[in-house]
Each structure stands twice: as structure tokens, then as C-alpha cells.
Amino acid sequence: MIEYKVDDLRLEVLREIVEVPAPSGFEEPVLNFIKERYGRFAHEVKRDNLGSLVLVRRGKSEKPKVLVAGHVDEVGFVVTGITSEGYVNFTPLGGWFDQVLLAQRVVIRTKNGLVPGVIASKPPHLLTPEERQKVVQISQMFIDVGASSKEEVEKLGVRIG
Fold first, then answer.
1. Three-class SS string for the chain?
2. Which domains are seen in the chain, by residue range?
3. Chain segment 94-140, per-residue pLDDT in tens
4. 0.90 exceeded by the pTM?
């Protein structure tokens, strides 16, 4: 069996790629990033009919070849509403487990730039004993962007859709 050590440079390459926002249906920015940043190292850069990006680097050695493959999209969310209190309602793009969402940091992409937020819900001290025994559903969650009104959220550039 071949043992392959992942060094700091390779980890940095992967970090750069995974930090480009690419929710399902909005993958072009990460594909463009990969092509622009790493295409110069490839002998061939091509796209297939499904939109996949393929970078080929031909080797001269008879040693085993390495294929790095993966999907570039990530599960994301769509803004479905903004409350009068300044909270952002959302629905997922792709599948999520409800129990892992609370307290997750998120970024809302707007025409004005990126807006940071945190997924939250009704605080525990306001829950009934019955509510405390249940997993909070996505429909009961919201994104807190630090605003206190719908108008403040809209000034940040956040819109439905």
C-alpha cells in the first residue's frame, strides 16, 4: 500500500478551494478560482457537458498516478424572509441534519458583498419543558446578522431569494 503524506502546502491548497463559497447551483466562482489559480500547472484544462472542470497534468514517471476528485458545491441556504426584529428566515439547498445547524456561522452573499451571521433559534430560557425535549426544526431557526429591524437587514443588502 502506498502511503501519502499531506503536507502544509497541500492543506493550504485545499483550504483555499473549500473557502470559496459555492452553494448548490452557484458553483461557478469556485470553478473559476480553481481554473485561474491552478490551471497554469495543468497541461490541459477542460469542461465537460455536465459542467465538471478537469485539469490534466501529464507525468513521465511510471510511478502510480494521483487523481484528486470531488464535488465543488456545498450545501447552502436561500433567504425566505426577514422579520420585523431583523432576523433572516431561510430554507436549505440540499440536505441538512437539523441538530447540527444551531450556532453555525454562515455568510449571506448579497450584491453589496458578504454578510456574516449565526444560525439561532428561540433561546432555551424561553422554551417550554416540552420544547426543550425536541430537536429544533429548521423551520424554527433563523439567521442573526446583528440587526434589530427589517430595515437594518435590508441596508446590509440581504434580500429574499
1. CCCCCCCHHHHHHHHHHHCCCCECCCCHHHHHHHHHHHHHHCCEEEECCCCCEEEECCCCCCCCCCCCCCCCCECEEEEEEECCCCEEEEEEECCCCHHHCCCCEEEEEECCEEEEEEEECCCHHHCCHHHHCCCCCHHHCEEECCCCCHHHHHHCCCCCC
2. 1-74 (no CATH), 76-155 (2.40.30.40)
3. 778 888 999 999 999 999 999 999 999 999 999 999 999 998 999 99
4. no
